[in-house]
Amino acid sequence: MTTNKKAFINNYEAVSCAGLNAEQLFASICEKKDCITIDNTYVQDREVAIGKIKSDKTFNELLLETVLKVLKSSTLNNFENTLLIVGSSVGGMNETERVFFKDSSYENIDYRKHPIDAIAYLLKKEFSFYDDISFSTACTSSANALGYAKEVISKGIYKNVLVVGVDALSYTTVCGFSALSVLSSKPCTPFEKNREGMNVAEAIAVLLIQDEKVASSSVEICGVGYSSDAHHMTQPHPEGHGAAKAMQNAINDAKIEKEKILYINAHGTGTMANDSSELNAISLLFDTSKPYVSSTKAFTGHTLGAAGAIEAIISTMALQKQIIPPSKDIKAVEREDVLFSNEALNKEFSYVLSNSFAFGGNNTSILLGLDDDN
User: Which positions fall inside the Ketosynthase family 3 (KS3) domain (predicted)?
Assistant: First the structure.
């Protein structure tokens, strides 16, 4: 099938610990606000830093409200001709935990609210989608959802796709990462040489992808690259071979020169293994050109399955505002050949590469750009 249609990000909204909407989120990043909180309730006998949404509303209320905002800001009257794609790492696990801890029993747990497609189940009850599909590939879940959105739009299968990246905090995930000894007791510092670890976080990110741009500010999903290095169940390849391959595949898919990329929104979790591997990959691939690199997880925390979608929103806003997001005060760098800035930079640029890497060497890179007509 011929692939000739473009895929545009026309509308979006986000909720995270860094803000209850996308504008607050981007402002928090540029102003380098402290958005991560210290918690002693998730891991027994230990304080960990987490990214918790600060709202009186329930997580599901926020989810429905965010999707409705995107619909109202769009050219659509409803989602009847729209494919829903959900990317989530834990699905409805937090809802299961809530009922279990309340009742000390599994009897009242609704099995339909637990699996990965629980989010789609919830949204379908509120909105009328043409169809839905759910992705769960750990921390690349919503990045892969975006990649699939581009594919079905480029092939003319759908004109409208709603991508929802979502994960709520749960004891299972926080304690699971604690068992891997990768959690930080303070806000994470990605790419800082003396980094301690990552911050598990929650977020909701919603993007409407369409085959036509609705405004001059619409941003195109120019390319998507995948790879699987299968080096280890939880550790990336130390030389970053899989990460470099995913980035190169995205560049090839977009059919641009890598020198045109001025900013990389890195996966940058703040763990020793990930950051070192990703820096090696960036240095390997961008051996002559030097794009700026930062990880916005310093402000949002690692939102797991939602990370790809929320960072696509951040990257989209960076292009629209022509601002390169800052790093969070890197004092000592691990590699001198990678370019960082501790301040937001006003620059003219047309392309952003956004990375998402997951357990098992599951790697996805998304290349976003301003359309040629902009």
Answer: 1-370
- What pLDDT does 359 receive? 76
Long-range interactions of 75-79: CB distance < 8 A, separation 24+: 75/10, 75/214, 76/160, 76/208, 78/127, 78/128, 79/127, 79/128, 79/129, 79/130, 79/160, 79/162
pTM summary value: 0.96
Q: Which helix (H) or strand (E) holds 244?
A: helix 241-254
Separation between Cα atoms, residue 312 and residue 368, nearest integer Å: 8
pLDDT higher than 50, residue 196? yes
- Contacts of residue 232, defined as CB under 8 A and 6 or more positions apart, other chains included, come to 361
pLDDT at 234: 67
- pLDDT, average across residues 137-159: 97
Would you state the pLDDT for residue 374? 43
Q: What is the mean pLDDT of residues 128-157?
A: 97
Pairing label, strands 263-265, 351-358: parallel
CB 142 within 8 A of CB 89: no
Would you call 302 a catalytic residue per the annotation?
A: yes
d(CA 269, CA 373): 35
Question: In order of start, what are the domains of the chain with their CATH numbers?
Answer: 8-210 (3.40.47.10), 219-370 (3.40.47.10)
Residue 35 among the catalytic residues: no
Count of beta carbons in the 10 Å neighbourhood of residue 155 = 13
Per-residue tokens: 47: 């304080």
261 touches 291 (CB < 8 A): yes
Binned at pLDDT 50, 70 and 90, residue 373 comes out as low
- Average pLDDT score, the chain: 93
Catalytic choice (114, 237, 241, 267):
267
Q: What is the pLDDT of residue 98?
A: 82
Q: Which residue among 114, 237, 241, 302 is the active-site one?
A: 302
Q: Where are the beta strands (DSSP E) in 122-249?
A: 131-135, 160-167, 203-210, 219-228
DSSP class of residue 324 equals E
Select which of 139, 222, 237, 241 is catalytic: 139
